[in-house]
Fold these 4 entries.
Entry 1:
Amino acid sequence: MKKRLLPHPALSVAIFLLWLALNNASSLAQAVMGLILAVALPIFTRRFWPEPPPKVKAGRAIRLFGVVIWDILLASIEVARLVLGPASRIKPAFIEIPLDLQDPFVGTLLASIVSLTPGTVSVDIDRSRWVLQVHALNVDDREAIIQSIKTRYEKPLKEIFSC
């Protein structure tokens, strides 16, 4: 019964708090309206939600989070250096990265991590071949970029989600 009334409890809490914050009012009517939306929206959108993600190994997830934050910092500095320097130093290219994982949710997380890192953007995940297509701002060595993404992001994601 609880799962039917609140299929996504965290989402319901977020909707309720967001409603209160956006309305900038503390009236009982606004709280009731926020509560109605917090319960109704997840129920009406339930059929659009994908399968729940697999169980996560939290310690490894925290370690990957640290790696991603560090890589974002370093890539930001590198992109700034490239953009502020002569344009002739920039060598953009599309790269196809063959994936060992075959879970759509984990593949989407990998593509998101790659896109979060300055200088790279995930273009597509070809699920028939399980290839991640990436556009990189500066490519000196394709194989080095492929191996970096596979070892720094794909391998930990496979460990985190046991896939």
Entry 2:
Amino acid sequence: MNHFDIHSERLLLTPLGFDFLESVNEYALDYENTKYMFHLPNESSEETAAFLKGVEEEWAKENPESFEFAVIRQGRQIGAVSIYLEDGTGELGWIMNKKYWGNGFACEAAKALIDYFAEHFGVRHFIAHCDTENIASRRTMEKLGMARTGEYGGRMNRAAQRESSEYQYELNL
């Protein structure tokens, strides 16, 4: 699979990899930035490096099942966005460095993924999940035109002291 970039009005989505270790660590090691994330925060730079190595290995496959992108704004990585493909469905995910919250960047990056994967991969069904307390992610999903289709208990975010619930959102094109 060749690497590819996706452009939106204000952002560049480019394959995430080891070159972004420092900027990924800036948000991935930060509890406040990751408190609603299932697999974060990372405990060390080495853990981030191992994740990024796995991302590069996935990009190197002939037919990747997941695509992790660095979100670039004015030459700086401000977050990441991803899509995991399974049975014609694309599961979306995103994280933005807290310095850039509140500017619509997560929504713009996710919309660019939806548009690109619909056009180039024929994906017509998208899903996303978030902690029920993550108001910003819920709003992002709603701005994308996604509808809430489920609520599930038993979510244990990595840094959480207690179990929480999550919402599932879906979009059909």
Entry 3:
Amino acid sequence: MGHRTIPVLFLIIVLLIAAQCSRKKDTLPLSSGSIMTPYQEFGTTTIFFYEGKYKRWKLESNYMKKPLTDTGTMLVTPVKLTLYDSLGKARTKVLADSGITTSTLQSFTVWGNVYIRNQDSLIVKTPKLWWIKGTHKVESDTYVQIETPKGDIMRGKGLDAVEDFSHFTFKSQVSGQFPDFKRRVEANDDRIY
């Protein structure tokens, strides 16, 4: 009787172990087939960029994603970018819903409620624009609105500007409002804004 109980008990234990093993195989997580390149994700992040000992910009964001194979390319949401002049003084603030940079940091593209304010209180609003390091230019192919400290509002589709917005041109569909324009022209005010 004792010998018969051991094989039956052994058989029950083997069946229980096999049942447990088969359940674990069904619940193992599998990596997604859609992930082509490994990447890193960051929560609240601040990045500084220096040229030599001079701070050129500071990027703050709630979310950042970058591929492991390319340390320069970054997707950022939202964008809070501060640009500094050669003396380390903040000269331009850029806010946007999202942004991306190239791997060599040669250009930045921002989109979604883009808002820029420079040190002269010039305000730029647009759905999308990009900055190109090599030419020190800012461009857009969408509608752009520029507001000056004197209350001038200029709009157009497409923009070509130097990075500090001291000079800019619209490509098409230009319109604007210029309060006190006649008085300013008669007073020989050589700066429109």
Entry 4:
Amino acid sequence: MIRVVLPYHLRTLAKVNSEVQLDVKGPVTQRSVLDALEARYPMLAGTIRDHATRQRRPFLRFFACGEDLSFESPDALLPDKVASGKEPFLVIGAIAGG
């Protein structure tokens, strides 16, 4: 099981209280995790990735095992600790402003 931690506004939208656990078939990549997340919580479709381009939304970042994975290929394998469920895949809302 893959563990995913969502920012508060997406947890509210998906009606979950804490991290979600997903069963991901095949290689564990950003794309496969987000596909599984959107399949289980269809209300999140388009909130993390653009509907048309499937690119990460500008004010969201992806982290795992203390590393920023936001600019990695969506098809790159996630760390083994994420694939085994020992560490969560984090979706973090970026803060902007002056």
